[in-house]
Design brief:
This is Pentapeptide repeat-containing protein. The protein has 280 residues and is mainly α. The protein has helices spanning 3-9, 67-71, 77-85, 95-124, 128-141, 145-150, 153-172, 245-250, 268-279.
């Protein structure tokens, strides 16, 4: 599947807040931290949420202490629940709807993440097991709320994880000079500037704050890698496997960072460059 087709296939796996009932601004809890300026209990609307379900300071979230909101992406779970599962109803309508949405939103978010990765996997292999699991997960997202709430997502994730691992091994098998695998490695703050990580498995690796400037991450498996505050300026992620937009948004990069064709350069990367110039 060409990159343009992959991007099109993922269109419904991209958050569209205009078609959602602001679920991520209401249902999750968050604590005052570097990511959020205030505490918010689960099920309580954020103090910045307007009555029309828009954020009152969407274009200033980072500057005003809410970078965690910018990084979060439901991968389309919000609009699927709002428009399909609940047929346009909102948590504002009645307490029962609010409870059902609270129970199903985390489930749908995990399912859309599985769809994101399985859609990519289908471009990398002809294994019919990938298409079969993709169809099963897609069908489950269309289930009634009660069925969604009972779904054994853990079993699905385990099944998908094993299958995606097999796809990854085959996709990376012929990488020239393939780097050694660092799956689940603690690389927080690691000095990896210019490192050759080409074709390596970095699944679940902790790369928080790692210096990856100019690193070669071509065809590396980044499924579940924690890239918060990782410095990807000038890094090459061409063909990186199972990378999501939220992972990129959590990192820092620049115009020289090379990305997989189906992913977008985060808008705040340009702002980061301007800030760096000011500090100099």
């Amino acid at each position: 599947m060409p990159s343009a087709d992959l991007a099109a296939a993922r269109r419904e796996l991209t958050a569209d807040c205009s078609r959602c009932a602001a679920l991520c601004c209401v249902l999750p809890a968050f604590a005052a931290s570097a990511d959020f300026a205030v505490d918010k209990p689960a099920g309580t609307p954020c103090l910045n949420l307007l009555t029309d379900d828009r954020c009152g300071m969407h274009d200033q979230l980072r500057e005003r202490g809410f970078p965690g909101c910018v990084v979060f992406d439901c991968l389309g779970a919000g609009q699927r629940l709002t428009r399909s599962t609940f047929a346009g109803r909102s948590w504002r309508d009645d307490p029962a709807t609010a409870r059902e949405m609270a129970a199903t939103f985390p489930v749908m978010r995990q399912l859309t993440e599985l769809l994101w990765h399985l859609t990519e996997a289908r471009t990398l292999t002809t294994d019919p097991a990938v298409g079969a699991l993709l169809d099963r997960v897609e069908q489950l997202t269309r289930s009634p709320a009660a069925e969604l709430a009972r779904a054994d997502v853990g079993a699905l994730r385990s099944e998908a994880g094993e299958l995606l691992g097999q796809v990854s091994e085959r996709a990376r098998a012929d990488v020239p000079g393939r780097a050694r695998d660092r799956r689940g490695a603690d690389l927080m703050g690691a000095a990896l500037r210019g490192a050759s990580l080409r074709g390596a498995s970095l699944r679940g690796a902790y790369l928080i704050g790692a210096d990856l400037r100019g690193a070669d991450l071509r065809r590396a498996d980044l499924l579940g890698a924690d890239l918060r505050s990782a410095d990807l300026r000038g890094a090459d992620l061409t063909g990186a496997l199972f990378l999501t937009q939220p992972q990129l948004t959590a990192a820092t990069g620049d115009a020289a960072t090379r990305l997989p064709a189906a992913l977008a350069r985060p808008a705040h990367w340009a702002a980061s460059r301007l800030e760096q110039r000011r500090r100099r």
